[in-house]
Amino acid sequence: MYLRTHHVIGRSLWIQRPRCNNIITISATAAQHDARVYVRAARPRVRSFRFDMCTKALINSGARQPPAAIVRFVVHGTLAWLYFHVMWMAGSVDWDSIVFPTISEVGKFMSFMLTMWTLIMHLGFFMIATVLDFFELIPQSVIIGKLLNKIREGNDFFFMTVMLPISMCVCSGFWSAWVLFNDIIYPSAVNNIIPVFINHVSHTTPIFVVFIELCLCYHASPRVKPAIASLVTVETIYLFTMITLRIQHGRWVYLLIDIYVNTIPKFIFVFSFLSYIVPVIFLVSCLRLNNYIWGIKTNGHVSRDVSYQQNKKIT
Description:
single chain; 315 residues; globular; two-stranded antiparallel ribbon; 12 helices; 6 strands; disordered N terminus
């Protein structure tokens, strides 16, 4: 039974696992970035060592070392609880009592607001990450390990391509608009109905949380074209959702749009800039930042080829 995972640049590494006659070989050259690692499994059930092998590869390549699984389990579990608690608190708020010139019928359109979509993204991502971290702490079969690697790969792809740029757009967009139009965007009287804690978890913490996650845990950077395609797909779905609601109910989800952008063509133009161009800029910037933080460094420079494939799954 053979398992294949990632590579190390410019070196060969032999590791003898204690009490298990398994030998791990990591070899590659500067010109051959996609080298293979073969592991001979001596027992029918072995503990998944994907994280250990990736950690050894990062250490020997001079890159940063990811934290232990128990640390990630605690951090991800805490964040999952935080967003679950906020969603539970939001259920007790009387949203229909919020009636302002630019904010009304919040309960009716709550599920279509981008802020709510962002909270659901964070809750789902951190719940899945917590489960994956837990399974790294216990013994597991090779088949289960391969399945978990697939799930982690999809969760990481979602984080890098959708959750990260949209969270940045929601937080930066809300507070930028609040600075310019304080009483219009979020009147102070709203704090009497919506707890300040919910407001800050919804509009402030996401941008800090995704940056902490980006720096704390390694997420394989996808290639730029698939990443942009994934982000544009989600944004297009949201665009059509907004237009459909406008046609069905005769108003936009955000009444502020009715004041300043009162036609569908104008909305599409403004939305294209705020929800396509700006998020793509955030996306590309974060991919470069992720490669800089976790990329293998050679002579003080980040290896661009390695940054995309540094944390391949076990196959």
